[in-house]
């Protein structure tokens, strides 16, 4: 387990920023509530076995006496480095993203399942969408009852969505909570 | 007709006295004098009757002068007085002024009426002013031109002297002489004008030449004469200008042989046109001079309104637009009303003028960098698009190729227009027929075909929105630069910081249907920036005149929502940022300063009307509104409570705020603790807290509010209540702000600064509200977190069937939050 | 026709006992006993006959001779049976008594099989098929098993006999006759239920027990060892209930994740999805029990979003016993698949820190996946052997430890059948050894001086005493820890004396949970408080005991439990409490007996065991063909049970 180096940090932050915008500041600066101390300090990012974890500093302190090979995970895993060396957000980061999301999309109940099977979000399945989404933004996908279902990349801006036909793709699927069932091992 | 009028006119002087008895005396002595003059000039019949006419008007003039003299002596500027009259004046109507003759008659009548009650009519307003100024000129005239008048009219001397025999003093005599000479002079020119006018009207073709003479008279240096001239010319032109546009014959046409009549008409038209041109030029020149400003503009306006189809209308339009936001109220109103009427009845000029006017105004706004009077933008409100779009639909039916153009205008509009489009078209047909039959309404001949119209339509639209956008952008920049540079010295302009913003927002709200979807994004961004504007400079505490007021920002949010709402059925868009703004604005709201109505309205539209809120946001708003309800007058708090009720009824999950249930903090996502000062509702973690405010509000001195609070706090979490409250925040606000007067006298003062007065008015509220909200909030909050833990433990014990007396008592005492009936 | 007559004769055969009883039946009970005692030889001899003169006609003729006698014997039998029913009435009270006469003929059928399959192998084929379709009939009758049961009790007391060695061997040779097996089990249970009244003289208990073990083993498919230990632990009647309960599935239960939602909201959502559920029980605020559902309950969006966890009711218990506090340091020594860990995290509201340890690498995936799905952020997942943890995390370093020890899983037989056969005595020993090491490790982890904590909760899903009480007792001996109440107001107190073992009396503070009592998996929970960081137990017991109570009462959670212990009788909840009371008495009067049994057959018990150990092996090949038929019979039985179980909740709610 080690802190991220310079460009790793930038990469991770860029990914996060696409989803949470300026709330990234909050993510980094929020006081953490994990940890036994009364003042657990902040959150920090740690790299362990090419996975990036978002974890309270006090947990990091206490994880130090666990040998690297025996340490499986700590805090929240937000993403991992692929063999190609590129960084991907994993579905496990959903909680953080959903809490701070800048761009949201709500799905009609009918289209929830199709998204949970890894399909893109179509205009037809769109229940609601935040304005001022531009293509390429990170979008967090919710169900109509505000259950976070996953996240993806906006394919169309909010404006274009109006003219889009029902089968047009609005959000490109990146990750969804269905993966907890579909491929638990990749997580 | 000239003859007939003559016969009548000999008699009038005797007839008149009964009308206005108190004027009789002076009228009578003048009468003598005039009679003598008449004897001199008896042979000219026409002269007689004109003078008779002048007699009357002169007599009137005198009387009115004195009235105004008194008034002037009372309050220095008669301008206000005029304006005060002007205000009541309704836009000029052309009808009463048929002929000079008729006009005169009309004046007599209306002048009496004017003296009686203050309702007047543009026409004789002109005259009144002329004569006011004329009085000034008389005084000046005395000294200046005594000599030349003397030698010019030496033949009048004898009568004069003979007349003034009984007055021995030379000085007085001189005075009177000059007086009379000036008077005389004026009379002459007036008579001349009247005469010429009469002739023209009686037979334009015959004596079209006399136009020139009249113009000549207008060259006179005596302002009064000039004005009279202008006005009479106005009347003349309004009457004789044909219902078609005159095209001067080309050389070729000129040399080719034509019949006598044609030559005659050609000549007539050309002269008319020349004269008209000259007249306009004169007007436009004069319009620049302060003295003539009003008259000139009035002429221009009347002309443009009467004959918008005729040549040189562009020049008219230009000059009008130049004055559209003149500091002079009268002028401004004139111009605005004119342009308004231009927009509202396009039939006359077939819409081209609308386009031009809008263009011109746009440029004007641009030129003046948006520092104009609101009126200048408000005129846009009277532009009509529906009829045009109805047309376009008809075309869509047969020609497909205009699809793309239609895309640019949005579909909902067309749909709604669709159904009444049929009857519209019928009405157009009928109007067209009528137009052809009635020659006075010439619009039809210039009616361009539909494609033309649509082009103009789009032009107009783009111009309008360009203007709006410019205004928005300008406001934005002004805010931007003013917020970074501390000095507010960059002049706010004569019309306050953002004169055009309000009408601009209104316009946007009105024309949102026509707004092209492509612009929607930019519009939203602008509104967003504006709405969020002063949150930038909040951290820098300096009060900045350039910053938008809370109400203005609320308006921005409202417009944004209206725009969205009107296109909402396509896509349900969640205007997060505006909610954030509203969330913060609620804190910035100050009862005295900002209009509660706007707030109530935004509560209604943004919170109550929105179909679907996400839980976090709704909870945050509920919490904040409850806090808000604590610290303002009953009107505000009532509207707030109504909104809270609505929210709670709509999303059940938020009712968890009503119960002191453990786990709220963790349920509220990553934020474990409620942050009262969070700027983003989604990050406030409101679900971690409870609505303790309701408990206090139940003790509110106002019965209605306390009952409301109790009903709210009794609202249990079971799904049962699905009914929605009928009353809207606006209604609530209205009712209670009305009731404030009736309810308690001290409410008024309380309204101004709420807390202390409020406290005095109610003991319960006092002990709470003396403390400032922040500390109170914190204190109660931690108190409640503790209590929640206690409650939690107590629950566990209850499950183990073990009552703990002490804790129970504490809990009982401290919180009465309803527990969920259904033990899920 | 022939069949009918045969049938008659068979009936006659079986009726012979009543005949020669008939004379004495009018006389005194002792005579009846004598008659009983005489009966076996008669029976035997008849079999000898049948064996000797297998092919010969005369055998039939002899039958016919007997036939006449049988005519009047019937009434006699009736009278006798009436008498018996009266006589029985005192000991086992059943209201079916008036019906006795009507059931007589039914009872005839009951008896035939004895005869029938006795000679089924020997006598000519037609008899076999007769007996077979008689069997069919009885299968049908098994549906109303209980009435039959009573009838048999009423009917057969007189002539029921343990099968002899020979019979057993024959039975072993032929395909097993499930009904007869079941009936014999009932019989034996009845007899054992009050042995001193019903024991036939000359028989001793252990034969019955042995027979019962054998029958249960073959009928339900338990291996020798397991059934043996069960019999030692439970009174026979209860044992039957337990075993039957093992055949049923437990209802699916889910736990609301209070980190993300509340039970009420979750219930609403699921109800809208067509899930039919109820609050789990009054002792849980977060549990829901799912009866049936249109959607896969493990794949709803809410499940995927971590709003709830599929979790057996029993696994709530250790966490509730642990009662973690916010901002504490916790260790879950065997965390996978994370049901308990996430529950702990939810109770701590993601504060403090949880070391979630899991030894088995393949289970780590699901563990961390579940943690993330449930939104748990205060956990460090590590992969150690639990015994190393004190070295890794440091001794006396945490506030509470949850040790859900790996175990034989004898409590969750209903979940996995294999346990019935797979687990052997030395498996249990291995587990017990591991568990002892683990619990010492757990104790070493805990800091006795922790302000809020200092507790260890030990739990297994096994009902073996050697995996539970024995382990705790060991811990009490090895470390300075005391048992404290679990804070669970139900469940049965643990054994503090079992067979030859004598445990620390405070062991009755531990809790046992049984399928047949609490309708949840067999489970064991014990909560320990670490008194000092010393490595050896404190010398004095009682003062510490009291001191601990005092200390506990300072900590208000446990104060709750402590007081609650005191007031327990008053607030005892109906059935479970009552049962546990009676259970205790049972234990009291049972243990000595079971012990003396041990005394009696300890040595030969082992012999028989290894005797039996190879016995099944050599029978394997012969039995192989009917093994599966047993299996399927058991299957359909279980199905029936499950259906009935399905109904019950419906009209419960």
Automatic annotation (TrEMBL), chain A:
Q: Which GO terms describe its cellular component?
A: nucleolus
User: SMART domains annotated for this entry?
Assistant: PUA
- Could you give a single Gene Ontology term from the biological process aspect? ribosome biogenesis
> Could you tell me one molecular function GO term of this UniProt entry?
RNA binding
* Domain PUA, residue spans: 103-178
Q: Does the keyword RNA-binding apply?
A: yes
Which InterPro entries does the UniProt record give? NIP7_N (IPR040598), Nip7_N_euk (IPR055359), PUA (IPR002478), PUA-like_sf (IPR015947), PUA_sf (IPR036974), Ribosomal_synth_fac_NIP7 (IPR016686), UPF0113_PUA (IPR005155)
Q: Does the keyword Lyase apply?
A: no
Localization in the cell = Nucleus, Nucleolus
Alphabetically sorted, this entry's keywords are: Nucleus, Ribosome biogenesis, RNA-binding
Describe its partners and assembly state. Interacts with pre-ribosome complex.
Its biological function?
Answer: Required for proper 27S pre-rRNA processing and 60S ribosome subunit assembly.
What the record says about family reads: Belongs to the NIP7 family.
Please identify the protein, giving its name as recorded. 60S ribosome subunit biogenesis protein NIP7 homolog
Q: Which organism is it from?
A: Cardamine amara subsp. amara
UniProtKB/TrEMBL annotation, chain B:
Where does the record place the CCAAT-binding factor domain? 554-709
Which portions of the chain have biased composition (kind: Basic and acidic residues)? 62-81, 419-429, 791-801
Which InterPro entries does the protein's record reference?
ARM-type_fold, CCAAT-binding_factor, Noc3_N, Nucleolar_cplx-assoc_3
The Basic residues compositionally biased stretches are 138-150, 802-824
Q: Does the keyword Coiled coil apply?
A: yes
Disordered: annotated segments: 1-23, 59-85, 138-160, 394-429, 744-766, 791-824
Q: What are its GO cellular component terms?
A: nucleolus
Could you tell me the keywords of this UniProt record? Coiled coil, Nucleus
Q: Does the keyword Protein transport apply?
A: no
One Pfam family linked to the record: CBF
Ranges where the Nucleolar complex-associated protein 3 N-terminal domain occurs: 189-279
- Location of the protein in the cell: Nucleus, Nucleolus
* PANTHER family assigned: NUCLEOLAR COMPLEX PROTEIN 3, NUCLEOLAR COMPLEX PROTEIN 3 HOMOLOG
So what family is this one in? Belongs to the CBF/MAK21 family.
Q: Supply the name of the protein.
A: Nucleolar complex-associated protein 3
Question: Which organism was this protein described from?
Answer: Cardamine amara subsp. amara
TrEMBL record, chain C:
Task: Show where the SAM-dependent MTase RsmB/NOP-type domain sits.
Answer: 242-531
UniProt-annotated location(s): Nucleus, Nucleolus
Please name the PROSITE patterns in this protein's record: NOL1_NOP2_SUN (PS01153), SAM_MT_RSMB_NOP (PS51686)
GO BP: methylation; ribosome biogenesis
Q: Which residues make up the binding site for S-adenosyl-L-methionine?
A: 334-340, 358, 385, 404
Enzyme active site? 461 (nucleophile)
Q: A Gene Ontology MF term for this entry?
A: RNA binding
Basic and acidic residues biased stretches: 48-60, 129-157, 580-597, 632-653
Question: SUPFAM superfamilies recorded for this chain?
Answer: S-adenosyl-L-methionine-dependent methyltransferases
> Primary place of residence?
nucleus
Compositionally skewed regions (Polar residues) per UniProt: 12-28
Does the keyword Chloroplast feature in the UniProt annotation?
no
Q: Where is this chain compositionally biased, Acidic residues type?
A: 61-77, 85-111, 118-128
Keywords in alphabetical order, please.
Answer: Methyltransferase, Nucleus, Ribosome biogenesis, RNA-binding, S-adenosyl-L-methionine, Transferase
Ranges where the record places region Disordered: 1-179, 534-653
Q: What's in the GO CC field?
A: nucleolus
Q: Does the keyword Lyase apply?
A: no
Name the InterPro entries for this protein: MeTrfase_RsmB-F_NOP2_cat, MeTrfase_RsmB-F_NOP2_dom, Nop2p, RCMT, RCMT_NOP2, RsmB/NOL1/NOP2-like_CS, SAM-dependent_MTases_sf
**Pfam family example for this protein?**
Methyltr_RsmB-F
Residue ranges, compositional bias (Basic residues): 1-11, 33-47
What family does the entry list? Belongs to the class I-like SAM-binding methyltransferase superfamily. RsmB/NOP family.
NCBIfam families named in the record: nop2p
Entry protein name: 26S rRNA (Cytosine-C(5))-methyltransferase NOP2B
Q: Supply the source organism's classification.
A: Eukaryota, Viridiplantae, Streptophyta, Embryophyta, Tracheophyta
């Amino acid at each position: 387990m080690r802190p991220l180096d310079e460009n790793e940090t930038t990469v991770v932050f860029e990914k996060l920023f696409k989803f949470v915008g300026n709330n990234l500041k909050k993510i980094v600066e929020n006081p953490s509530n994990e940890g036994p101390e009364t003042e657990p300090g902040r959150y920090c990012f740690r790299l362990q076995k090419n996975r990036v974890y978002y974890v309270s500093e006090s947990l990091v302190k206490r994880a130090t006496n666990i040998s690297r090979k025996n340490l499986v995970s700590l805090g929240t895993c937000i993403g991992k480095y692929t063999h190609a060396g590129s960084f991907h957000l994993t579905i496990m980061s959903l909680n953080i993203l959903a809490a701070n999301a800048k761009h949201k999309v709500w799905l009609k109940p009918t289209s929830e399942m199709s998204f949970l099977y890894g399909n893109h979000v179509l205009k037809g399945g769109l229940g609601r969408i935040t304005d001022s989404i531009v293509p390429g933004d990170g979008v967090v996908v919710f169900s109509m009852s505000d259950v976070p279902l996953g996240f993806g990349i906006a394919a169309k801006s909010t404006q274009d969505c109006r003219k889009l036909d029902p089968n047009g793709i609005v959000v490109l699927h990146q990750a969804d909570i269905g993966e907890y069932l579909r491929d638990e091992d990749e997580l | 007709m000239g003859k007939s009028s003559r016969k009548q006119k000999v008699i009038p002087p005797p007839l008149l006295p009964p009308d206005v008895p108190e004027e009789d005396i002076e009228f009578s002595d003048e009468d003598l004098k005039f009679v003598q003059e008449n004897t001199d000039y008896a042979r000219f019949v026409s002269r007689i009757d004109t003078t008779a006419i002048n007699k009357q008007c002169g007599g009137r003039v005198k009387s009115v002068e004195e009235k105004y003299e008194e008034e002037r002596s009372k309050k220095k500027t008669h301008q206000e007085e005029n304006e005060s009259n002007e205000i009541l004046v309704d836009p000029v109507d052309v009808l009463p002024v048929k002929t000079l003759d008729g006009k005169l008659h009309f004046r007599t009548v209306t002048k009496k009426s004017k003296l009686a009650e203050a309702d007047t009519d543009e026409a004789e307003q002109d005259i009144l002013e002329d004569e006011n100024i004329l009085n000034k000129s008389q005084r000046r005239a005395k000294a200046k031109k005594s000599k030349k008048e003397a030698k010019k009219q030496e033949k009048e001397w004898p009568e004069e002297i003979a007349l003034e025999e009984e007055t021995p003093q030379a000085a007085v005599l001189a005075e009177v002489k000059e007086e009379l000479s000036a008077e005389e002079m004026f009379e002459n020119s007036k008579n001349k004008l009247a005469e010429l006018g009469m002739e023209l009207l009686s037979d334009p073709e015959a004596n079209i030449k006399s136009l020139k003479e009249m113009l000549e008279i207008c060259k006179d240096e005596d302002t009064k004469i000039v004005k009279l001239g202008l006005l009479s010319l106005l009347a003349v032109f309004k009457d004789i200008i044909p219902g078609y546009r005159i095209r001067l014959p080309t050389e070729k046409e000129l040399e080719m042989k034509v019949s006598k009549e044609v030559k005659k008409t050609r000549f007539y038209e050309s002269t008319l046109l020349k004269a008209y041109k000259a007249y306009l030029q004169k007007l436009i020149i004069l319009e620049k001079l302060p003295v003539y400003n009003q008259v000139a503009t009035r002429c221009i306006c009347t002309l443009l309104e009467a004959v918008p189809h005729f040549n040189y209308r562009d020049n008219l339009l230009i000059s009008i637009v130049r004055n559209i936001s003149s500091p002079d109220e009268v002028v401004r109103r004139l111009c605005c009303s004119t342009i308004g009427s231009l927009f509202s009845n396009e039939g006359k000029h077939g819409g081209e003028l609308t386009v031009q006017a809008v263009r011109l105004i746009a440029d004007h706004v641009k030129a003046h960098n948006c520092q104009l009077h609101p009126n200048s933008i408000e005129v846009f409100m009277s532009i009509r698009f529906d009829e045009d779009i109805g047309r376009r639909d008809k075309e869509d039916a047969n020609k497909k190729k205009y699809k793309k153009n239609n895309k640019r205008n949005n579909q909902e509009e067309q749909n709604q227009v669709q159904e009444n489009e049929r009857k519209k078209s019928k009405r157009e047909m009928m109007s067209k027929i009528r137009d052809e039959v009635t020659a006075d309404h010439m619009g039809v001949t210039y009616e361009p075909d539909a494609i033309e119209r649509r082009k103009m339509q789009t032009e107009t639209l783009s111009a309008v929105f360009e203007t709006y956008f410019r205004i928005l952008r300008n406001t934005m920049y002004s805010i931007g630069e003013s917020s970074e540079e501390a000095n507010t010295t960059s002049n706010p302009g004569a019309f306050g910081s953002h004169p055009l913003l309000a009408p601009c927002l209104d316009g946007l709200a009105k024309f949102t249907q026509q707004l092209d979807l492509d612009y929607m994004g930019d519009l939203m961004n602008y509104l967003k920036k504006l709405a969020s504007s002063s949150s930038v400079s909040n951290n820098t505490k300096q009060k900045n005149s350039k910053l938008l007021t809370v109400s203005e920002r609320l308006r921005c949010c409202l417009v944004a929502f209206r725009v969205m709402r009107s296109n909402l059925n396509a896509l349900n868009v969640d205007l997060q940022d505006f909610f954030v703004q509203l969330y913060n604005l609620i804190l910035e709201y100050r009862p005295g300063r900002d209009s509660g109505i706007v707030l109530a309205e935004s509560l209604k539209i943004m919170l109550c009307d929105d179909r679907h809120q996400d839980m976090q946001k709704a909870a945050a708003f509920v919490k904040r509104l409850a806090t808000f309800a604590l610290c303002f007058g009953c009107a505000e708090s009532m509207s707030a409570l109504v909104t809270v009720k609505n929210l709670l009824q709509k999303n059940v999950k938020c009712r968890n705020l009503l119960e002191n249930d453990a786990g709220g903090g963790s349920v509220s996502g990553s934020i474990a603790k409620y942050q009262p000062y969070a700027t983003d509702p989604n990050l406030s973690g409101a679900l971690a807290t409870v609505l303790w405010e309701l408990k206090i509000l139940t003790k509110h001195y106002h019965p209605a509010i306390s009952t409301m609070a109790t009903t709210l706090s009794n609202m249990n979490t079971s799904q049962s209540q699905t009914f929605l409250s009928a009353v809207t925040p606006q209604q609530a606000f209205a009712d209670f702000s009305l009731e404030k007067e009736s309810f308690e006298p001290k409410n008024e003062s309380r309204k101004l600064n709420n807390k202390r007065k409020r406290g005095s008015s109610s003991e319960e509220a006092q002990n709470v509200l003396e403390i400032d909200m922040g500390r109170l909030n914190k204190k109660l909050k931690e108190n409640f977190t503790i209590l929640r833990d206690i409650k939690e433990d107590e629950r566990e014990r209850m499950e183990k069937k073990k009552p703990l007396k002490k804790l129970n008592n504490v809990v009982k005492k401290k919180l009465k939050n309803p527990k969920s009936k259904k033990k899920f | 026709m022939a069949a009918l007559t045969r049938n008659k004769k068979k009936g006659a055969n079986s009726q012979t006992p009543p005949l020669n009883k008939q004379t004495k039946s009018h006389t005194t009970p002792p005579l009846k006993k004598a008659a009983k005692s005489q009966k076996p030889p008669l029976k035997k001899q008849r079999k000898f006959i049948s064996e000797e003169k297998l092919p010969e006609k005369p055998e039939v003729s002899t039958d016919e001779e007997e036939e006449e006698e049988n005519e009047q014997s019937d009434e006699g039998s009736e009278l006798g049976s009436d008498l018996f029913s009266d006589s029985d009435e005192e000991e086992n009270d059943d209201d079916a008594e008036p019906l006795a006469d009507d059931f007589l003929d039914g009872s005839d059928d009951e008896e035939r099989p004895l005869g029938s399959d006795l000679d089924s192998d020997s006598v000519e084929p037609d008899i076999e098929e007769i007996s077979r379709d008689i069997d069919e009939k009885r299968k049908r009758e098994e549906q109303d098993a209980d009435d039959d049961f009573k009838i048999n009790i009423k009917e057969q007391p007189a002539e029921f006999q343990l099968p002899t060695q020979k019979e057993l061997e024959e039975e072993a040779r032929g395909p097993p006759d499930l009904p007869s097996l079941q009936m014999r089990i009932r019989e034996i249970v009845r007899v054992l239920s009050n042995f001193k009244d019903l024991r036939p003289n000359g028989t001793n208990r252990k034969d019955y027990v042995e027979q019962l073990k054998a029958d249960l083993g073959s009928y339900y498919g338990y291996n020798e060892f397991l059934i043996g230990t069960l019999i030692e632990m439970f009174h026979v009647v209860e044992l039957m209930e337990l075993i039957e309960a093992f055949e049923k599935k437990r209802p699916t239960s889910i736990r609301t994740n209070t980190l993300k939602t509340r039970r009420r909201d979750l219930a609403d959502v699921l109800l809208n999805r067509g899930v039919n559920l109820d609050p789990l029980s009054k002792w849980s605020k977060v549990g829901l029990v799912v009866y049936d559902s249109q959607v896969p309950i493990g794949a709803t969006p809410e499940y995927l979003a971590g709003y709830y966890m599929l979790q057996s009711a029993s696994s709530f218990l250790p966490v509730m016993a642990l009662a973690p506090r916010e901002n504490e340091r916790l260790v879950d020594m065997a965390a996978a698949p994370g049901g308990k860990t996430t529950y702990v995290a939810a109770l701590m509201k993601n504060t403090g820190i949880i070391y979630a340890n899991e030894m088995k690498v393949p289970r780590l995936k699901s563990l961390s996946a579940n943690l993330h799905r449930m939104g748990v952020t205060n956990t460090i997942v590590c992969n150690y052997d639990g015994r190393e943890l004190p070295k890794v995390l440091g001794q006396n370093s945490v506030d509470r430890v949850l040790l859900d020890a790996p175990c034989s899983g004898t409590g969750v037989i209903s979940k996995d059948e294999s346990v019935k056969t797979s687990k052997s005595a030395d498996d249990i020993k291995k587990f017990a050894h591991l568990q002892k090491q683990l619990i010492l490790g757990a104790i070493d982890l805990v800091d006795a001086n922790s302000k809020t904590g200092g507790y260890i909760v030990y739990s297994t899903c096994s009902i073996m005493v050697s995996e539970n009480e024995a382990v705790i007792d060991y811990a009490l001996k090895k470390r300075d820890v005391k048992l404290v109440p679990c804070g669970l107001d139900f469940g049965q107190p643990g054994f503090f004396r079992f067979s030859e073992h004598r445990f620390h009396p405070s062991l009755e503070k531990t809790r046992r949970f049984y399928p047949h009592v609490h309708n949840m998996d067999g489970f064991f929970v014990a909560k320990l408080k670490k008194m000092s960081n010393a490595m050896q137990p404190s010398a004095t017991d009682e003062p510490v005991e009291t001191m601990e109570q005092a200390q506990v009462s300072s900590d208000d959670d446990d104060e709750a439990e402590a007081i609650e212990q005191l007031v327990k009788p008053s607030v005892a909840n109906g059935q479970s409490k009552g049962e546990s009371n009676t259970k205790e008495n049972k234990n009291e009067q049972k243990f000595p007996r079971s012990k003396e049994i041990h005394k009696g057959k300890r040595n030969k018990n082992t012999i028989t065991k290894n005797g039996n150990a190879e016995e099944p092996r050599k029978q394997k090949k012969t039995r192989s063909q009917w093994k599966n038929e047993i299996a399927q019979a058991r299957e359909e039985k279980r199905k029936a049970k499950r259906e009935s179980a399905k109904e019950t909740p419906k009209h419960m709610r």
